[in-house]
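Assemble and predict.
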Amino acid sequence: MSKCARKKYIKTNLRQMTMETVESQHDGNITASLTESKSAHMQTQTGQNSIPALAQVATIAETDESAESEGVIDSHKRREILSRRPSYRKILNELSSDVPGVPKIEEEKSEEEGTLPNIATMAVPTSIYQTSTGQYIAIAQGGTIQISNPGSDGVQGLQALTMTNSGAPPPGATIVQYAAQSADGTQQFFALGSQVVVQDEETELAPSHMAAATGDMPTYQIRAPTAALPQGVVMAASPGSLHSPQQLAEEATRKRELRLMKNREAAKECRRRKKEYVKCLESRVAVLEVQNKKLREELETLKDVCSPKTD
DNA sequence: TCTGCTCCCCGTCAGCGATC
DNA sequence: GATCGCTGACGGGGAGCAGA
């Protein structure tokens, strides 16, 4: 079995174990199964195959080749099970409602709702981008660009937010390069062609991390000297206006790029939630272990008190 | 220094459920 | 029924580490 295949097979088995764990949680057997799962997971992370849980997986993976084919056969069934699994947020919130002290994952107020009411009318279908440092850049109607720093780290040096189309990009495709902080302290966008996005005059010039701290977000304007509409923004063509096959192809490419971009962001968010979920479960395990220990001690104490003394 | 392994992160695809 | 968001699965790449 190749390294990659073995790795995936182990992953799959671990995942199956985790799934059983989650299901058993819903049945109320939280502590034991969770602990098992956690230990299995942690053991795998450390690569120590002498520990029982991993040894079990390793045995499956390395000595029982027939299990692999069975695993392939069962993959559809497993997939069916997995596909019905509720989201992490859902599971966590269910757990939270059962047990006080477990923080809930907040329903995210989407940036679209909160800060960008006009996004729906914008040409760029997804108007919120995130830089590699977590900054959110939103393009609002009229070419206004908003930058939001979720953290307090501020922006150091040059960052690039580049959106390109794989293959041959259609004319008009958005290419945005974001220079977060230039040497002279100003912030600029470089959009398609030679357009420069400059800070809105009405906005007070403030460091981005300050803006994040105060909630004030600087706004930016795409300066397009020759066009009424900012050319760095891809305007959505109405279906009726698409005639030639080339235009249709461009539209399809644009849609695909948009979908990929959205999915990319969704995957990031999903992974973030998953991490949060796992952290929460781990902290719960810790709490329950302490609780369990206390109860055992209490039991022993009661036993000592109640049992008749023997010589 | 090189090689192999493991872990982690990311982008993409596929499939499902929810919503319109 | 179409669209959208979410998430598991998959494959790739980089970083760190241990052994040759």
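Residues 245-306 of chain A form the longest helix (62 residues).
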